[in-house]
Amino acid sequence: MDLLNEKNVMENYFDNNTDFPREVILKEDILKNGIYFTDTALNNTEFQNKAYFLFTFDVDVPDKVKSKSKIIPQKFKIKNGTYDLKPTIIQSRYNSNSIYKIDLTGNKLKLLLNNEIIADVDFVPEHGYYKYKLKDDTNIDEISPAIYWGETLDITAFRICEYWGLSEECKFCDINENYRSWGFLRKNIGTAIEPEKVAEAVSLASRDNEVKRYLITGGSIKNHEKEFNFYIKYIKEV
Ligand code: SF4
Question: What is the dihedral of CA 201, 202, 206, 208, to 10 degrees?
Fold first, then answer.
């Protein structure tokens, strides 16, 4: 498929699915392809860094993503533009070869498809509760970073999975690779976060009216009784 045709293909999808929101079609295509951020866009804006808890979701390998001038935003919002899009939030999945790019043009963030501007962009801002620290001086986002534009705390209590290593891991999953590659972002946390720290982070973050949900997740423990006893401690402590 040549570059020119990819925009035509997208517009054909719009034309052939008029009962379906354009925003959904475009969002799915961006998630599937990944997105490229120019250094100009990253270096001249403020945003919430991607948290790299659970999975990376990036298309590129971690070393390539880490070579960027800054950690990429957790999410971005597309709106207006060629297709008069309603505001639509999309997770960042980095791909340096993507047909989709976010760049800074005339001091404004724009989404480009095949180098043609198609929409306005906002990066997700840092959230109010990010200013809090735990009693031991740990930054709160090291325990409970935000997803869904700050509405949900994403707590990965166990940052690795026991299905890895014997080719038993799920095909889409990169949890252990994520920890190996990005674990340095939370060097004092280790693989299993202490339940007391999770409870303290939830308590602090709940002062922020934007926070509506708490997601506690993590890798699997093969012995199901041990797994139950591990995860139930977090619920009880919170
Ligand atoms: S069970 Fe383990 S390998 Fe499968 S998705 Fe969950 S964390 Fe990944």
Answer: 40
What spacing in Å lies between the alpha carbon of 141 and ligand 1's midpoint? 23
Number of the ligand 1 atom closest to the C-alpha atom of 169: 3
Torsion angle, alpha carbons of 202, 204, 210, 214, to 10: 0
Do 80 and 144 lie in one domain? The reply is no
Q: Which domain holds residue 34?
A: 3-123
Is the Cβ atom of 163 under 6 angstroms away from ligand 1? yes
Task: State pLDDT tens for residues 135-187.
Answer: 999 999 999 999 999 999 999 999 999 998 778 899 889 999 999 999 988 87
Nearest Cα neighbor of 154 from 48, 46, 54, 31 is 54
pLDDT at 3 over 60: no
65 φ/ψ sector (left φ>0, alpha ψ -120 to 50, else beta): alpha
